[in-house]
Amino acid sequence: MSSTGPDTMLVLEDGTTLRGKGFGAYGESFGEMVFNTGMTGYQETLTDPSYCGQIVAMTAPHIGNTGINDEDPESHRIWVSGYVVREPSRLASSWRAQRSLEAELKAQGITGISVPGTRALTMRLREHGAMRAAVSTVENNPARLLERVLASPGMTGADLARIVTTPHPYTVAPPSGVATRYRVAAVDLGIKAATPRNMAQRGMEVKVLPATSTARDILAVSPDGVFFSNGPGDPAAAGYAVAAMRGVLDAGVPIFGICFGSQILSRAIGLDTYKLRYGHRGVNQPVMDLATGRVYITSHNHGFAAALPPEADTSRTGDAWAHVPPGARKPFGTPYGEAAVTHVNLNDGVVEGIRLLDRPAFSVQYHPEAAPGPHDAVDLFDQFAALMDTGLMASAHGRGKK
Ligand SMILES: NC(=O)CC[C@H](N)C(=O)O
After folding, report:
1. Per its UniProt entry, which superkingdom is the organism in (predicted)?
2. Is 233 a pocket residue for ligand 1 (Cβ < 6 Å)?
3. What is the ipTM score, two decimals?
4. Is 76 a catalytic residue?
5. Structural domain range at position 48
6. Is 230 in the pocket of ligand 1 (CB under 6 A)?
């Protein structure tokens, strides 16, 4: 509990120092300091491999209420390097709880801190952007901790997918009663358990492959479709995944990408990726489908994004479309034919989805697997199935409907 933990310090690379009580294991954690605005889903957040290398602050003020169970993790371990909460719940109160959040952090060796100032911390990160940081229960001199923060690696250029990926291929089969209709090769760049589960429920037998699989390894599975997963780190440092993506594009096999996978598709077709100031992490991000004008409330966890193509006109129009760069609706040329931006974030205009118009490939920057988060976008898995059925997308934006 916050009142019983050791005196603990959080230091950001700009020198900001917050003092609080240890929450979790004694020790130290270093990483990129980010914040997540989800009111629920801390267990899925902690176990999402995309958080590898990050210290995550929760903006919801009371964390741990429902404890920890063995059904909700998104992977076999906690991946955040450190955890920041305002007030840990004194009780784990749920019929599903098997133990407390703090016991789990301790058991997995994750050092966290409970500090009263999570709101001030979040505002600092919004102003200055994501920063390197450290949490320590053992160092009490901020200047000394700051020195080590400044010597720690940043997120730009970090190749982390190969750290979190599965060492061996494995298969997720459709549940009993669901016929197998497709074989999907899923490149695990940091895959969450909910993703193959959503695919398997739709009749996909999912062969999960290590991050560094080549196009030849992927195509050796004889897939009807290829999936590139979410994952941690800087997409610019994952050239091996970009090369594999290009090989699969050349083969003309249907492709679906989520988050990191979307950034890899973007890079494979010649778009740049860049680091956002503080990213999108939470469960209520509004995303517009540019084909229909429909807005989806979606789950996010990303710090990088695809840059709009240089020919796109990014001047803004009024009212409902205020944050939709008009140029985003214009198809643009790539080495694989024309492509289009399909979705944008209505808070800030960031590209949230792309697709190729001449090849069966599409991707989204947000999380239709919704773990945690709203299920608004779950039909993207049906669109992947439709793409494998027909080689065409089910929604508008298709070649004939431009
Ligand atoms: N969830 C993800 O796949 C994150 C992708 C990438 N590491 C980013 O931060 O943007």
Report:
1. Bacteria
2. yes
3. 0.98
4. no
5. 7-150
6. yes
